[in-house]
Amino acid sequence: MAASARRRSRGASARSRRRAGNGTKSSRRLWFAGALAVAVTAILGAFFWMQATSSEDSARYDALSTLTTADFHSLTISPTDADVLLFGHHAGVLRSTDGGRTWAETSLRSQGQDVMGMAFVSLDGGELVGAGHDTFYRSADGGQTWDPVTPSLPSTDIHGLAASPGDVATVYAFVVGHGLYRSRDGGESWERATQQQLPGDIHSMSAGPDGTLYLASSSSGVLRSDDSGQTFIGVAGVTGPMVTAASPSAAGVVYAGTQRELMYSADAGATWVQRELPAPGMPLVISVNPVDAMDVVVVVVGPQGAGEVYRSVDGGKTWGDTAD
After folding, report:
1. Are 160 and 205 in contact (CB under 8 A)?
2. Hey, how many other C-beta atoms are within 10 angstroms of the C-beta on 312?
3. Residue by residue, what is the 3-state secondary structure of 19-37?
4. C-beta pairs of 187-193 under 8 Å, 24+ apart in sequence
């Protein structure tokens, strides 16, 4: 009977030790899970803090204004007054007289009055033309009012429009499905500028001095012509450009915007330097002051779809309200 009691006592002690061991393992598991949770929380917190800090750093420049149009297509600066800007989109043209701080509607203000490109065709800044998807307009008062015209082109589906800085009566238009056309009388009559087959995905065109033209193609990059549009060559260094903007006054200075970066070249695209964007987003619209190659205006379209207007007077090295 005493032996039986001793066996029961030893069994109880063993079960007690197993339970104690199981409890210790359970405690260790709980401690490890808690520590892991704390570590993960700390890592995620650090990640989101760095992301927020990065976004704040990227957006440290103040925008001149915010455009809330559904799309962003063209921008031009008056050759006589750098405070006069014209912005084109699918529903018309907006005009600013204070360097891009505020914008007013023009007579083009309805959906379908599309302006993919604009070009001044007079040195006094009074006359300009604008064109887009099956549209072509002319203004005689600096872009305040516009009248539809019917150009002698094979189509008016135009994805690029530019005037030669040395002779603003010479205007170029990239007509979708038909190629590049040139007018020598301010857009009254047109002729085929080149027989070269150009990519169909041209998004914009700009003109520099001495007959230089630049095209932005998603598939072919930046294309350059040194002979007034007769022939084009590919320019390396920029992938998937959405827009080009050549300086009308400084030979070789050109800007290009892609879906993630802004590029600058001082040698006609032989080499490129990436400029820091003033805010996160895509630089979809760019224009250069006709008399100052370092004065550039860019519209950066952010994640929420709004277009922030920025200006730089040092070629995109710094940004802000620099017109004061």
Report:
1. yes
2. 20
3. HHHHHHHHHHHHHHHHHHH
4. 187/121, 187/129, 187/138, 187/149, 187/151, 188/151, 189/152, 190/151, 190/152, 190/153, 193/228, 193/229, 193/230
- If phi > 0 it is left, if psi is from -120 to 50 it is alpha, else beta; for residue 320 that is left
Question: Is the pLDDT assigned to residue 63 strictly greater than 50?
Answer: yes
> What global pTM score does this model have?
0.81
Q: How far apart are CA 300 and CA 283, in angstroms?
A: 4
Q: Collapsing DSSP states into helix, strand and coil, what is residue 271?
A: coil
Give the residue-averaged pLDDT of 19-24.
46
What is d(CA 171, CA 56) in angstroms, rounded to the nearest whole number?
42
Per-residue exposure over 172-207, b if at least 16 CB sit within 10 Å of its own CB, e if not: bbbbbeebbbbbeebbeebeebbeeebbeebbbbbb
Arithmetic mean of pLDDT, 211-229: 96
Q: What percent of the chain stands above pLDDT 70?
A: 80
322 vs 218: which has the higher pLDDT: 218
